[in-house]
Amino acid sequence: MPSVVVYGGLGALGSAAVRMFKSQSWRVISVDLAASTDADTSVTISPTQSLAEQGEHALRHIASALDGSKADAVLCVAGGWQGGNAASKSFLSSVSVSISQLIETSAVAASIAAKCLKPDGLLVLTGARAVADAQGTPGMIGYGLAKAAVHQMVASLSMDRSGVEAKVIGILPITIDTPANRAGMPNADFSSWTPTNDIADQLYAWAASSAPCENGRFYTFVTEAGKTRVE
């Protein structure tokens, strides 16, 4: 049975990915702050743990769940948006939260991939199209710097001697159609937002090798008039 580790398995996108892979009879291991009732195995980590402790805890439980085998895919879809410039009262807090939600989760996922992923497997990290396209993100500095670090991580991990032998790619969503985004932007054009199921379907296609992907490449999900394409 093929296996996938979904880091952020309780989020909107993570939950969609868990359900998608389960529907295809994959063994699904979720890593998040609380347990997923849809996954076969849930690894819960605590924000009070250090990054090293989170990594060690996740690796120990994932290795136990895999029972001597290796995962076919590791998907890091954890995250969250933080706004604010350097003059914002919450600026330093937004930087700290973005580092925790985006950089640290990607780093733990990379560690998991280095130790638990098949050589012909797939590691996916989640970047952001808005950050990739811009030379700066003055209205969301913490978020921008964290996503830029994730983009650099994808580039580094896809190279020789990175410690990850599998294929590594990044996804660059524009706006994902989630309940949180709808609540925050109720007057937006939802037909241009990418449904979580569309991304989950594509992640499955890449992981199952039914659709090709190129090592080190970033893929953007573009949704227009309710239809999604991958560029």
From TrEMBL:
InterPro entries: NAD(P)-bd_dom_sf. It is an enzyme of class 1 (oxidoreductase). GO terms for molecular function: 6,7-dihydropteridine reductase activity; NADH binding; NADPH binding. It comes from the Eukaryota. Keywords: NADP, Oxidoreductase, Tetrahydrobiopterin biosynthesis. Homodimer. Belongs to the short-chain dehydrogenases/reductases (SDR) family. This is Dihydropteridine reductase. It comes from Coemansia asiatica.
